[in-house]
Write a structure and sequence with these properties.
The chain has helices spanning 22-25, 38-43, 57-69, 74-87, 89-98, 100-107, 111-117, 119-122, 139-144, 174-187, 206-210, 224-241, 254-264, 273-293, 309-324, 329-333, 369-376, 393-402, 422-427, 462-472, 479-491, 495-500, 510-528, 539-546; strands at residues 6-11, 14-19, 129-132, 153-157, 194-200, 246-249, 270-272, 302-305, 336-340, 343-344, 380-383, 407-410, 434-437, 444-446, 449-451, 454-455. By secondary structure, the protein is α/β, with parallel strands linked by helices. It has three domains: 6-100, Hemocyanin, N-terminal domain; 101-268, Rossmann fold (3-Layer(aba) Sandwich), CATH 3.40.50; 276-454, NAD(P)-binding Rossmann-like Domain (Rossmann fold), CATH 3.40.50.720. The strands form four sheets. Strands 10-9-8-11-12-13-16 form a seven-stranded mixed sheet, sandwiched between helices. Strands 3-5-4-6-7 form a five-stranded parallel sheet, with helices on both faces. The protein has a two-stranded antiparallel ribbon with strand order 1-2. Helix 4 (74-87) packs across helix 5 (89-98), helix 20 (462-472) packs across helix 23 and helix 23 (510-528) crosses helix 24. The longest helix is centred in the middle third of the chain and has 21 residues, at 273-293. The chain is globular.
């Protein structure tokens, strides 16, 4: 009798061993549900386990969309999508890719923020790999428990700063899961090559610690020495178990994010999306905005609200770009100003963290953001504070008073944390604002014109950067990769897009944009001797061939 667990079949001319029967239906990477043909049902022990009618993938997409759209809240739609992902990965990604503008706000920002807040209460099955202090001394063995060994991209969080929502501990796992969904949807990374991870080092969120359903370790966050020892063992183990993987740091707290990036960026293939990815997408947005204002980057004065990972990451990349236009580093830094929770970041303050010091200018201390706007008269304001409504009518009107086309970026996520809405930005500037936000806003009609707000989502950057690093097996991920990614992204914005108010290309084109970004990123690696595989004759075409397309495999010929 044949093995009830496995069955040897010929698929596309290759001899493979697959699960059969219920085991096959329970494998989300292999399951086709009602799309299994009659012959496949006979060979794979599926006869009688499925409804008799055979559906095409297209018919299954129609059914899936009906099921998702019947729910009234985005959180319910999120749960439905995740359930589909757990059951049938191919169908999930077909639905996501073909309906990206509709589904991305559900699978990621803004809905993923609510999903993380409710994660312990909507939890149904494990997704991703959790590591804790209990894994010390055996980290490599824990990583080997993951069922797939050809991992090319790891997204890891410690849950300390989930979006603009703060410390959500182990409940932050929704972020790596969501980010990796976008890696596949936006850049074609095969989902079996991705690993979502949470390093559960505890939480200082007392509400979670008191929640009987909380899924994480019930203690406060580890001390720095314990934390560093655990993270270092993870880096060492990941390099051993998954030697070809790119590691993306996601939603770490400011202090840990900056120092971990500094410590490991030149040792392993690693980057921090909140610092470098956010910097690149914001720089691309500014490049696009300057095509409207027709003024060079080096003539801009940019004022940030918030001086954490995102703000400093954006400023650092802007400084590099201004240096590329001929400014010295000091002159470029003098163009970037910050307001944090204690007011304007200036040199006379004694309370500044290390990462703020390069942007502490010799100027009088101003206690609030509006005073900084009226005094400094910036050409652009960028909100990365997680403080909703801080770009109020007074701030927006002050920007309009000193700029013909004020650049207003309210980038905090999720939508509830945005510094202003798209409607407020347009209404309080007489429709003259060049606006972008981190989460989506609907089109706005103002002064007889309809504006389509740009969404400065990191999904325009990190999937392409990751794909490029994977394609060339990069040793490290230098800032130059993000600089060229920003240039490519800005170049992909058409004049027609700009006329609508869009400073980023439509999401419908994101896979093509990601392929171009990946080629530019891999090009940097080859130019700098950082690639660990030979350069193909046609880099762009080679990268496009790597991109996963969610189509069902045939199990028998």
């Amino acid at each position: 009798m044949p093995d009830r667990k496995k069955h040897h079949v010929i698929a596309h001319g290759h001899s493979d061993t697959f699960p059969r029967g219920v085991d096959l239906l329970n494998d989300p990477y292999l399951n086709k549900g009602t799309a299994f043909t009659d012959d496949e049902r006979d060979v794979l022990g599926l006869r009688g386990l499925l409804p008799p009618n055979v559906n095409t993938e297209e018919e299954q997409v129609v059914r899936a969309l009906e099921n998702i759209r019947q729910y009234k809240t985005d959180l319910e739609k999120y749960i439905s999508l995740i359930a589909l992902q757990d059951m049938n990965r191919t169908l999930f990604y077909r639905v996501l890719i073909d309906n990206l503008e509709e589904m991305m706000p559900i699978i990621y920002t803004p809905t993923v923020g609510k999903a993380c807040q409710e994660y312990a209460h909507i939890f149904s099955r494990p997704r991703g790999l959790f590591i804790t202090v209990d894994d010390k001394g055996r980290m490599a063995d824990t990583l080997r428990n993951w069922p797939y060994d050809d991992i090319r991209i790891i997204v890891i969080t410690d849950g300390e700063r989930i979006l603009g929502l703060g410390d959500l501990g182990a409940d932050g796992m929704g972020i790596p899961v969501g980010k990796l969904s976008l890696y596949t949807a936006c850049a074609g990374i095969d989902p079996s090559m991705s690993l979502p991870m949470t390093m559960d080092v505890g939480t200082n969120n007392e509400t979670l610690l008191k929640d009987p359903l909380y899924i994480g370790k019930r203690h406060h966050r580890l001390s720095r020495p314990e934390y560093d020892e655990l993270f270092d063992e993870f880096i060492t183990a990941a390099k051993e178990v998954f030697p070809n993987a790119v590691t993306q740091l996601e939603d770490f707290g400011n202090t840990n994010a900056f120092r971990l990036l500094k410590k490991y960026r030149n040792r392993v293939c690693l980057f921090d999306d909140d610092i470098q990815g956010t910097g690149a997408v914001a720089l691309a947005g500014i490049y696009s905005a300057l095509r409207i204002t027709d003024r060079p980057l080096k003539d801009q004065k940019i004022l940030f609200l918030g001086a954490g990972e995102a703000g400093i990451g954006i400023a650092d990349l802007i400084v590099s770009a201004m240096q590329d236009e001929g400014l010295s580093e000091n002159d470029a830094c003098s163009k970037c100003w910050f307001v944090d929770s204690h007011g304007l970041v200036v040199s006379c303050r004694s309370d500044l963290a290390e990462h703020k010091v390069p942007y502490a200018h010799d100027y009088e201390h101003l206690s609030d953001f509006l005073s900084a706007v009226t005094d400094l008269k910036p050409t652009a304001i960028i909100g990365v504070s997680g403080q909703p409504g801080k770009f109020d009518s007074d701030v927006l009107q002050a920007m309009a008073a000193c700029n013909e086309r004020p650049i207003i970026f309210a980038l905090s996520n999720p939508t509830s944390k945005a510094e202003c809405t798209a409607e407020a930005a347009y209404m309080h500037t007489e429709g003259r604002a060049i606006f972008a936000s981190g989460s989506p806003f609907a089109p706005v009609t103002c002064h007889g014109k309809t504006f389509v707000p740009g969404q400065g989502n990191n999904a325009y950057i990190f999937p392409g950067v990751g794909l490029g690093a994977i394609a060339c097996n990069a040793a490290v991920v230098p800032d130059e990769m993000f600089f060229v990614a920003a240039k490519v992204l800005a170049h992909e914005v058409s004049r027609e897009d700009l006329d609508k108010g869009l400073i980023f290309p439509p999401l419908s084109r994101i896979r093509d944009v990601s392929a171009k970004i990946a080629a530019s990123v891999a090009g940097v690696a080859y130019k700098r001797g950082l690639a660990r595989v030979p350069e193909p004759e046609n880099l762009t075409e080679s990268i496009k061939k790597l991109m996963y397309d969610p189509l069902y495999r045939r199990y028998i010929d």
